Write a sequence for this structure.
């Protein structure tokens, strides 16, 4: 359960932070909605990268 | 974050059961002023000091006999636990961060477990507290990483064996995910403590509501009471587990500073 919480929060943090940054860029540079779209996708990608990484770390530990 | 203000003067009206009232910050006394900003000693600060006092009592106050008593066992087991976590995740070099990691683990674990006791305040249920701890770890990783590895620390962001034409995108994603760490690190602990304590308070509030219904209500009230007991046990587990997760992630991040380039 701890691992599930860890992975899901990893992913959610990625998407939310991406959305916030994108929204900020749109707000400053008035490029709405492109900043939001691009940064949410990038945040999602970064979140998935983090999830894969911590899942691999967990698998390594239990395999050892 | 809720409840930076003091609970208003609605004490005389019939009280609604408010599941987030437990997170209110009260001012106990004022220490001083910086500019116009009042620096207050709050119930949160009091519980932080209390946790540190408990830890100090546990770690300094125990006897050092060859055959340990209960308290000495707790102290020794927590030492071994953190030391093993560091050794298996960051290697021998990681042990130079033992004081930091041990302090973080003990502070989070003890303040969480204190918070499970009814009527107590949970320090980690405020995002600013967990964010401060996570930023402390993040800055330690950054500063130590650059101090030890110099510019080689940037290898952390450039995985090997990536074709040159997608390298900029990958580096950007790596940097992005690096800066996500303090956020997921802090929000995880905060959200778990907040959600668990709100669930406890909601189920506990069903007990007087049902009991107020009359004779049948007494029987109905047994159900949420059982739920509260079960949830308290679960919260005790979560309190420890989240402290452990916070610690192990700290060690994993520190490992990146010690050995960059995976």
């Amino acid at each position: 359960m701890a691992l599930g919480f860890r992975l899901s929060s990893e992913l959610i943090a990625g998407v939310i932070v991406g959305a916030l940054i994108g929204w900020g860029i749109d707000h400053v540079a008035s490029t709405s909605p492109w900043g939001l779209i691009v940064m949410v996708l990038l945040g999602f990608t970064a979140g998935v990268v983090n999830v894969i990484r911590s899942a691999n770390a967990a698998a390594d530990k239990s395999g050892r | 974050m809720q409840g930076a203000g003091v609970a208003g003067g609605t004490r005389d009206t019939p009280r609604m059961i408010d599941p987030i009232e437990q997170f209110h910050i009260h001012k106990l006394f004022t220490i001083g002023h910086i500019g116009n900003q009042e620096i207050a000693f709050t119930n949160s600060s009091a519980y932080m000091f209390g946790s540190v006092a408990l830890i100090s009592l546990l770690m300094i106050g125990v006897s050092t006999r060859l055959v340990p008593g209960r308290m000495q066992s707790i102290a020794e087991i927590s030492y071994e636990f953190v030391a093993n976590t560091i050794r298996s995740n960051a290697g021998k070099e990681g042990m130079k961060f033992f004081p930091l990691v041990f302090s973080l683990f003990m502070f989070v674990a003890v303040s969480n477990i204190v918070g499970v006791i009814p009527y107590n305040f949970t320090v980690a249920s405020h995002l600013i507290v967990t964010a401060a701890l996570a930023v402390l770890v993040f800055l330690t990783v950054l500063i130590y990483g650059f101090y030890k590895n110099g510019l080689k620390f940037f290898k952390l962001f450039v995985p090997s064996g990536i074709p040159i034409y997608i390298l900029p995108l990958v580096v950007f994603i790596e940097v992005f995910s690096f800066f996500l760490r303090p956020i997921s690190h802090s929000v995880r602990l905060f959200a778990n403590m907040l959600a668990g304590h709100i669930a406890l308070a909601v189920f506990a509030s069903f007990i007087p509501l049902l009991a107020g219904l009359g004779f049948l209500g007494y029987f109905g009230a047994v159900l949420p009471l059982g739920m509260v007991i079960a949830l308290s046990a679960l919260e005790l587990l979560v309190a420890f587990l989240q402290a452990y997760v916070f610690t192990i992630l700290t060690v994993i991040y520190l490992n990146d500073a010690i050995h960059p380039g995976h």
Summary: Residues 1-13 of chain B have pLDDT under 50 and may be disordered. Residues 21-258 of chain B form one domain. Residues 86 and 96 of chain B are 10 Å apart (CA to CA). Chain B touches chain A at residues 88-89, 172-174, 176-177, 179-181, 183-184, 187-188, 191-192, 241-242, 244-245, 249, 252 (CB under 8 Å).
